[in-house]
Amino acid sequence: MKVSIDGQRLLRRIDELATIGAIVGASGERGSARLALTDEDRLGRDLVVRWMNDLGLEVTIDGIGNVIAVMPHASGHAPVMAGSHIDTVATGGRFDGNLGVLAGLEVIESVMAAGIDLERPLAVGFFTDEEGARFAPDMLGSLVYVGGMPLEQALDIAAVDGARLGDELIAIGYQGGGPCPGLVPHAFVELHIEQGPVLEAEGVRIGAVTGVQGISWTRVNLVGQSNHAGTTPMSMRRDSAAAMFDIGVRLAEIVAEVGPPQVGTIGRIEVTPNLVNVVPSRVSFTIDVRHTDEMVLRSVEDRVHAIVREIADRHGLMVSTETLARFEPVAFDDRVVSIVEATARAHGLSVQRMPSGAGHDAQMLARVCPTAMIFTPSVNGISHNPAEFTSDDDLIAGTQVLADVMLELTEWNPKERS
Ligand code: HGY
Ligand code: MN
Ligand code: MN
To answer: Which ligand has the nearest atom to the CA of 93?
Structure first.
């Protein structure tokens, strides 16, 4: 069973959604900033929900603001669901998350227009706060959706700006009555840009994603003593920023020693009092380390926590750490990955299996149903940057593959030996 999607309609919707929270990159590239549960996020949500309602889909908003839209269908069977997120980081591109949601919508609209009779409905959703940039952890909405965190606990999470998640959800009008955990799909497929350099470097059009690497986010708080930058001898200082820089150097050494795919990032830094002539008394900064192998990731975490304590001691600082996110590597359902691979090939598209370096909502849905992802190439491997770019042809090809994978999954019986 096949359907032809309307690529131009997909591109128009991507462009229209991107105008909400529009930002301009260093070289004039168009991106979007729609941090979770901000007014920009609300406006993006309103637009996509309008498109869902215009199609006559049954739209449910749950207790953490996840939005799931299901085709009306007499069977009452669990749907084959596509989805992703429409919240962005502060330096977001036009495609991260948005592609998976708008491609799912495009598939449903095309199937309905073609009057294709299905065994079970299709659905598309977007999940709250996938990025985790404002409210940690990332993939928070889909984590709650699959029962990985109690709703009440999630509603009390504080943002980097101090706001309480539940209050912000009410403020934007998206605290719904839908159940958490939510409807369990028959299968879940997420189309997403790769956000890395692999497909482009290999000259491959489609990624059949086998899983997601493990993620570890830690916030480190160092407390020393503010002092005069001119009069305080180096031997007398309790300089929290100097300690942070030493930790950064050691982190880079550990990551280099482990080697790829190990990555490590210090992404958010807050310094107090942050003044040119005052030895910093306090810093709070984040460490993001990731690896495809759980045992390697654990050993890197242990080494990093040990150097944090050792360096804090050396500088005479108090130290505290807080885990902001911790997800083990996830393997997708190999049967669904094979359907992605075969569908890409049937369209004459080059395809390769690969893990995901970035976290995705699919890694949470994989806890409750057969799940896989489809990647499209990212030009220059750039993402979380307005320079993020994927060609129209690749966006359309990825959506066409999503369409045919979803249709095949409507007739797929996971209990039958494939
Ligand atoms: O952090 C991530 O990998 C994703 O962008 N939330
Ligand atoms: Mn994403
Ligand atoms: Mn992202």
So the answer is: 3
